Amino acid sequence: MMANQSGSASPARASLASGGAGEHDPHALMRIKSLTLRARAVVEGFYTGLHRSPYHGFSVEFSEYRPYVQGDDPGGLDWKLYARSDRYYIKRFEDETDRLVYLIFDRSRSMGFGTLAYDKSQYAVTLAATLAYFMSLQRDSVGLLTFDESIGDWIPARQRPGHFRQLMVALTRPLAGAGTNLDQPLTQLAQRITKRGLVILISDLLAPIAELRTNLAMLRSRGQEVM
Predict the structure, then answer these.
(1) Which of 26, 35, 28, 33 is nearest to 12 (CA)?
(2) What is the pTM of this model?
(3) d(Cα 100, Cα 9) in Å, to the nearest integer?
(4) Which CATH number fits domain 100-226: 3.90.78.10, 3.40.50.2000, 3.40.50.410, 3.40.50.1000?
(5) pLDDT tens for residues 64-106?
(6) Is residue 46 within 8 Å of 59, Cβ to Cβ?
């Protein structure tokens, strides 16, 4: 635990330590200067074990069929095969890769607005760092695309030493002081990623909503889960 000059715990860390999971004081959290430590402070209050894919077909690959036995999940039955063979078979899957996660981060001028002790950008950076830290602990591959009126940083999703630090460096760059163009980053992302994954958009969405809906629908049509 970090300590102040008197040897006691720093006020920010002490405040966080006194609360349970999910009870962090945002003001105390923002006083932690290190973005990595800030993300860790949030994640340590929650479950950080390795994930298992919550549904078949996401981050898993078909392996083989096996006969259905009592107690199996009926959701795994292949009804098309049943129609051809008149026998019940279960689809078996095996892990293909860890989940691919892409953070789409808004660095436009409007993200610098705030009425509290911190602005939207600081809150968004903390959210993005926390998600990246949590996903990395789960051995997911995390990528980042930043934007304002144009594309900023593009970091492909990876899981290797030094990658998380690269994400943190990109997230802590100053705001570009420009407008918001949601069309370009979402279109670029749809063209660049070929495997199914999870896309998380972090933005104040001060852009045409119709355009946003079109681009999100395009990502979903290509098999991406969008948040």
Answers:
(1) 28
(2) 0.67
(3) 37
(4) 3.40.50.410
(5) 666 777 767 777 788 887 887 788 877 765 444 468 999 999 9
(6) no
